[in-house]
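Limitations

Structures in this collection are predictions, not experimental determinations, and the ligand pose is part of the prediction. Treat each record accordingly. The example that follows, with iron/sulfur cluster as the small molecule, is included so readers can see exactly what is and is not provided: the inputs are given verbatim, and the output is the predicted complex.
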Amino acid sequence: MESRVVQLPTKPRPQDTLGRPLHDLRISVMDRCNFRCPYCMPRETFHEHYRFLKSSERLSFDEITRLTRLFVQLGVKKVRLTGGEPLLRPNVSELVGELTTIDGVEDVALTTNAVLLAQHAAELKANGLHRITVSVDSLDPQIFKQMSGGFAELERVLEGIRAAVDAGLTPIKINTVVQRGVNDHTVLDLVERFRNTGVIVRFIEYMDVGNRNHWSLDRVVPSRELLARIAERWPLHPVRENYHGEVAERYAFDDGAGEIGFISSVTEPFCGACTRARLSSEGVFYTCLFATSGVDLRTPLRSGASDEDLLALIHDTWTRRADRYSELRSSLTSREQPLKKIEMYYIGG
Ligand SMILES: C[S@@+](CC[C@H](N)C(=O)[O-])C[C@H]1O[C@@H](n2cnc3c(N)ncnc32)[C@H](O)[C@@H]1O
Ligand code: SF4
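Predicted complex:
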């Protein structure tokens, strides 16, 4: 393990130009995926000859752990492992074990499509993983297949969720991307399936991340519309946020059957409370999901930079941060739209 970490308690916690502190770190541990969800990694682009990173180009576990320690010194308390598909990264549980023992890390979570979860759930729990989020877009096998890009693995995903419950990785959250005319007519089935189970379904508005998913506003189902549809069947009431900056708006069933959430980055942007930094699999630090560029941390890491140098780089990048893309989205003309946004699979969802 790296032992070059220095404690710099006097280093001030940075705030960005809009007064937002650094609190969460999302780490993409793997750029590859075993799905080809058309809204994320459409097959026509991410075909069999697509050049993904070589393993030597991805940050090693030691490098990720070292950087995480530094981010923690600057305020990070929550870490989420994502991708691509994080369970495709060999031995990812070992990384979980390293991250959960860092002083100051209060929460380590992982987002997965769950195809490989049944075989990893117990090991992830044993290594200290606190929480897991599983992506499931529909319980209709045909629609599931369409939205995962042709992989008919719904049963394996549901098995993965059961294994996570058995392993005690609770409460489990489900992420469901909703697209008008694709799966919006199946959301009630999802809600019904997970009511009374402790599993929390969160509906995500289809976002214009990257440049390759052919996003259009008329494919977005506003959360307000979905909420009304669900509440008509099962009355709901709002629940206070768990912590400042929580991305999902929470609603509980009046009959006590649990809760659901809505992530409305398109119709109700939450940039003002965004405290998230992102690290790509090859070590580029991004300050926004909709960024067009980031800061390379791998080169200095691999050419002998000290912890002080890296801390200064991260600190300065954060203090210069002015991103608020989701708030600006609707006011940008097409010429002002960023030309080359980073893709979700690469930056980590
Ligand atoms: C990029 S994935 C990575 C982790 C894992 N492969 C999974 O699917 O859970 C993280 C989350 O981003 C969501 N996502 C991907 N593209 C999206 C888009 N265009 N709009 C909204 N959510 C998206 C996925 O549904 C998933 O819940
Ligand atoms: S959303 Fe997740 S499962 Fe789907 S293609 Fe993207 S990274 Fe893979």
